[in-house]
Structure formats: structure tokens, C-alpha cells
């Protein structure tokens, strides 16, 4: 950017040589040449008359340096800087666009290659996929049956646990009934023993009487034994 500014300064300050020309008017004229938008440069032409012979040596006319407009120069430099910056940004964007475009086509080619690879792998793996699906279906059915059996076993176990509680209650009730029965049996054993002793005594007495009196009537003896037995039964029932 500084180099461009120096070139602009050199072009504005360098002396220029005027091209000699033959005057075609009789009086002095002025030609306006503009070095910039706001600074006209006045050039004084040679005086002469129409039809006069050309001199051997033509005089040289120098062009005076026009006054410099700093604001215009700064504005021009700012515009130039902006244009150069935009050009640089455009070049950067162009390079970025080219890189992105190249990357896009590269990725597109890669995607196409991968799609071909996937299609090829799909065709090759189709039998294995079918086998895997069949195996999976078989194992899934086994798993479903196993889950059903497990649920049934869980229900059975729960029923057994419930029955175990009932069985424990029944065992407690049975133990209680056994204790009650034992108490009842114990309460009946003593009267039975007493009756058995009384029966034995009565039988012994009846036997002794029968042996002491040989002419005893058998029917009377039978009635005596029956009476003793009935009395023992009544005593047992009362107990």
C-alpha cells in the first residue's frame, strides 16, 4: 500500500515535456488541462500567425505543477486501500471457495466409493444376515418359553410358600389337639384303671364263690358276670 502511494506521488510531481505544435490562431489562446477534478492546469500556447514559417528550433514550454488537493488525495488513497482490501478479500474468498469445492468433490467421490462398498458388503452378508435372523428368532422363542416357565414356577413357589404358612398353622393346631388329647387320655386312664381293679376284684370274688358252692347254678353265675360287666361299663361311661 505504501508503494502505491509513492507511485501516485511520483506521477503527480514528475515534469512532463510538451509536444510542440503549430499555432493555428492569430491571437493568444489558452487551453485548459485538468490534472484533477478540482485543479485545472493552464498552459500558454505559442503565439503566431496563420501561414508563418516554422522556426528552426521550437521553444519548449514547461507545465507548472498544479496545486495538490490533500483531501482528494486522501480520499483517493482511502478508496484505493479499500479496493485493494476488497480485492485481497475476494482472492481469499476465491481460494476458500476453490478449496471447499475441491473438498466437496473429494467427499462426493468418497461417498460414492463408500456406497459401493456398503452395497457390496450387503450383498455378501445377506446369507449371514438371514442365518442370524433365523437363529435370533429361534433363541427368542426359547427365551419366551423359558420366561413363561419361570413365571409358572414363580407362581408355584408362591403357592408353596402360602401352603407352607398354612401347614405351619396346621402343625400348631395339631400339636395343640395332641396336647388336649393327651390330657383327655390321662383323665380317662385313672377311672379305667379303677374300674379294671374293681372288675378284677368282682371276678375274683365270683370265682371264689363259684368254687366254694359246687351246686351253684350256671345261669346265676352268668347273670352275675353280666351284671358286673354292665356296672363296669356304666362306670366307664360316667367317667
Automatic annotation (TrEMBL):
It comes from the Eukaryota. Residues 7-16 have a biased composition (Polar residues). InterPro entries: Integrator_complex_assoc (IPR053129). Residues 1-32 are annotated as: Disordered. PANTHER family: FINGER PROTEIN, PUTATIVE-RELATED, INTEGRATOR COMPLEX SUBUNIT 10-LIKE PROTEIN. This is Unnamed protein product. The lineage of its organism: Eukaryota, Sar, Stramenopiles, Oomycota, Peronosporomycetes.
Amino acid at each position: 500500500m505504501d508503494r502505491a502511494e509513492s507511485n501516485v506521488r511520483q506521477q503527480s510531481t514528475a515534469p512532463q515535456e510538451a509536444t510542440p505544435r503549430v499555432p493555428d490562431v492569430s491571437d493568444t489562446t489558452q487551453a485548459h488541462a485538468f490534472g484533477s477534478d478540482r485543479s485545472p492546469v493552464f498552459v500558454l500556447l505559442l503565439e503566431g500567425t496563420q501561414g508563418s514559417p516554422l522556426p528552426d528550433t521550437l521553444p519548449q514550454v514547461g507545465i507548472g505543477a498544479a496545486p495538490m488537493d490533500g483531501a482528494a488525495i486522501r480520499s483517493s488513497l482511502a478508496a484505493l486501500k479499500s479496493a485493494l482490501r476488497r480485492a485481497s478479500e475476494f482472492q481469499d474468498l476465491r481460494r476458500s471457495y476453490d478449496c471447499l469445492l475441491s473438498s466437496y468433490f473429494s467427499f462426493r467421490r468418497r461417498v460414492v466409493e463408500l456406497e459401493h462398498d456398503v452395497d457390496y458388503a450387503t450383498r455378501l452378508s445377506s446369507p449371514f444376515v438371514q442365518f442370524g435372523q433365523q437363529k435370533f428368532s429361534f433363541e427368542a422363542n426359547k427365551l419366551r418359553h423359558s420366561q413363561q416357565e419361570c413365571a409358572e414356577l414363580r407362581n408355584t413357589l408362591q403357592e408353596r410358600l402360602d401352603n407352607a404358612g398354612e401347614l405351619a398353622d396346621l402343625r400348631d393346631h395339631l400339636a395343640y389337639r395332641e396336647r388336649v388329647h393327651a390330657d383327655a387320655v390321662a383323665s380317662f386312664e385313672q377311672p379305667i384303671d379303677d374300674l379294671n381293679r374293681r372288675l378284677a376284684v368282682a371276678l375274683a370274688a365270683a370265682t371264689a364263690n363259684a368254687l366254694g358252692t359246687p351246686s351253684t347254678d350256671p345261669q346265676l353265675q352268668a347273670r352275675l358276670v353280666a351284671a358286673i360287666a354292665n356296672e363296669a361299663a356304666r362306670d366307664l361311661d360316667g367317667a
